[in-house]
Design goal:
two-stranded antiparallel sheet, alpha+beta, 33% helix, 107 residues, three-stranded antiparallel sheet, 27% strand
Length: 107
């Protein structure tokens, strides 16, 4: 299953010199969708200045579960780590490709 979408950069549609949209395909598309899901569901803002290890762990688990709700992701393959002000997510797609993304919590 090949995913395709319009590329969003700096919270805006990315256009070429002729004003046509750039596309994002495959694992980059899945990663973009996951990044937007993290923002829309407020996972990243909930981690700002959070020091309670139990709350951080619970948020990591919630993010993993949300990632695995995506039909393109293999169940049980998501991994999320919050470290140094950022979230690193990895998962395997049903096409056996690895999705990898990093998102800054306060950026």
């Amino acid at each position: 299953m090949s995913s395709i979408d319009l590329l969003i950069a700096d919270l805006d549609l990315s256009l070429n010199d002729r004003g046509e949209p750039h596309y994002v395909i495959g694992t980059e598309c899945v990663a973009q969708d996951i990044r937007h899901m993290l923002i829309e569901r407020g996972f990243l803002t909930s981690l700002i200045a959070e020091r309670d290890k139990a709350k951080i762990s619970m948020t990591e688990t919630n993010i993993e579960n949300a990632i695995e709700d995506d039909a393109r992701i293999l169940a049980g393959s998501a991994s999320v780590v919050f470290k140094n002000g950022g979230v690193t997510c990895t998962a395997q797609t049903i096409d056996e490709e690895t999705v990898y993304l990093e998102a800054l919590v306060n950026g």
